[in-house]
Amino acid sequence: MQDKKFLKYKIVAFGGGTGLSNLLRGLKNYNFDITAVVTVSDDGGSSGKLRKELGVLPPGDIRNCLVALSEEENLITKLFQYRFPKKKGGLSNHSFGNLFLTALTSVSGGFDKAISNAADVLAIKGKVFPVSLDNVKLKAMLKNGKKVTGESKISKSKSAIDMVEIEPKSAKVSKSVLYSISQADCIIFGPGSLYTSVIVNLLFNGVLSALKKSKALKIYVSNIMTQVGETSNFTLSDHINAIIKHSYPEILDAVIVNNGKIPDFVKERYARQNSVPVKIDKIKYENIKVIKKDLVSKNQYAHHNFMKLSKAIFNFLRSKTK
Q1: To the nearest whole number, what is the mean pLDDT of the chain?
Q2: Residue-level pLDDT at 322
């Protein structure tokens, strides 16, 4: 039985892509008060098409988080994840959930209201907020001197990334996110693409000042593998240094990193794509606790096992509040 003092423990998780939704699937098994804060810079796939054609904020990562936090897999959650076949025509490769959120935005009078209504339909355990309601583009300054615009192009870059920024720079974090940060007991960054899913959320006006004021424990969940185009050859310290470069030295209290064995056949498959396990090296920030755990799923992908990851987070929080 869980400790009663964790029943209302408030967790805010920043991210995007599959990493955040995977984390949420584990966290919802604990009686936490969960808030997912989701990036809004996606410009690829179904989300990118809807964004370009209709001018809406990208719904894909929001959809995945809503489904991840739904209480049970039922017909509605399966419907939200249904993707139309890749054929010629307007619906080709679109997700039903993306179309639903887009239509609901018009019907309800706003993207935030659409998310809230969809959350009710799915009976989710927690809350999901876009980091901002402003429409932004993500830009990257590469170490070869070139600039790249657009999340999908940045993630495919062959040169190392030096810095990322959003356009317009005046884009503000949503009030709901600011309030969630102020109430949080724990704030989690990642797992997910370092620049396009994690760091991008720190760039909106108001986020860093709110994080500095917050007394919550702040944890970064490191990726298991490097990501070609964003973190080629990155070690653990490289990931942390990149986050601090875009924020401030005291932003993290701890980092959770996998030290479990990845099956050889999985490593070999990733190696063919120039992706390797993130090396655990020495970090220079003494204020950051490094938590090493076996977190890898024992399947064909080098992804986090969401139950192992959520347990590692729970145990760390429990150790800090005894």
Answers
A1: 91
A2: 64
